[in-house]
Amino acid sequence: MQKFIIVGGGARGIFFSEILENELNCKVLAIMDKFVEGNPFIEARLKEAKIEGVEIYNDLEAMLEKYPSDSVDGAFIMTPEWTHLSVFKRLTKGNYNIFLEKPIATTKEAILEIGQIAKSYPKVIQVGFVMRYSPFYRKIKSWIAENDMGRIAHIQMSERLTVAHGTKFKRSWHRMKEFTGGFMNEKCSHDLDMMCWIKEKDAKPVGVMSMGTRAFAHESVGQTSCSTCPDKKCIYREDITQYAKYHAGKVLLDSTAGGVNECIYGNASDIHDTQSVMILFDDGTHGTFSVVAMSGKDGRDITIHFEYGMIYGDLEAGDLTKIDYRTNQTEKYHISGMNFHGGGDTIVVREFTECSLNGTKPVASVEDGLRASLLAFCVDESIELKSFVRLPE
Ligand SMILES: NC(=O)c1ccc[n+]([C@@H]2O[C@H](COP(=O)([O-])OP(=O)(O)OC[C@H]3O[C@@H](n4cnc5c(N)ncnc54)[C@H](O)[C@@H]3O)[C@@H](O)[C@H]2O)c1
Residue 172: CB partners within 8 Å, gap ≥ 6? Predict the structure, then answer.
């Protein structure tokens, strides 16, 4: 049985523990989370998932001393991205196979340092671009590989979040650029990566133009806390039970999270909630992506225009359509039962277990993570400069 350790016992760390233990027949030996007060949350969630025998540490060195790399198959980095570089450096020093959540880091300096270390690292490093593992996007890739509709002339992608989902990014550590590298990096590095992955046979990205704003909840109504606010119908009102780290009437968050119960009108959040991006590729074509964080429905759509046909799809519905203009044929494909991220989570974890075992190269690498974050930073720079920003070499 393969054995793993996890750094970061929040929403993602616990979810991956469940996948490893309950779906992939692996053992999670230990979870390390810096935030001591959060231990009851981790214990309760593991108990709920019927996972036994996981040691909880609050000190990374103590966990690594007990479980050096030759005693485990790999280690997962599931902490917020502003901490990724330091944890990554420590784990690479210890020679572990590493699963690194996306986005790989929050600043240009940090992603380049991670990229530099990864270049000559002898063990596996897999990045958490889970959408690459979704059967939905895999089907799109296999249609593209058939190569029967000519070159890709244009890609249109969009994402929307429900108000409840989008509001989460206005609270907790997610609300600050300092901790995320911006909304585009934190939430949409997936989508920037996906567009480059779809286009990879034809061309590479060379630069971006973007517009973005804080379009929702931007005017303070003079309240600071939801619990004392008289506006009971406010759509951004907080439901503390929705916090990933809610346990027994309390939300157990570290000091970066800011005020639980905070009114999001005029709070300290400095990220965009509405953003549109154009990516220029080196074959002269371009793609567009837009995201709206406060909508009525979660979802992602994609339309790819080829020279002689098109593919369009709705991720949440699991529906894909391919139209070939020359044969006049329409092919439909439906995928049911996909969970979050188009069903990619179990597959991404399974691939890491396999790569760790066989030393094979994962589908999502540090290089991909680096490119997506670099694009995200250029996107935000383009908004500030109101101009085209060229991707550095
Ligand atoms: N691939 C995806 O689709 C996907 C989805 C959601 C989140 N993520 C990414 O996964 C990572 C974790 O997100 P989450 O939603 O689980 O966040 P979270 O806030 O729920 O959990 C993070 C945990 O890390 C702990 N922590 C903070 N600093 C630490 C440190 N230095 N050492 C050890 N523990 C530390 C916190 O106490 C918390 O328990 C983030 O990088 C996030 O962007 C990826």
Answer: 243, 253, 257, 258
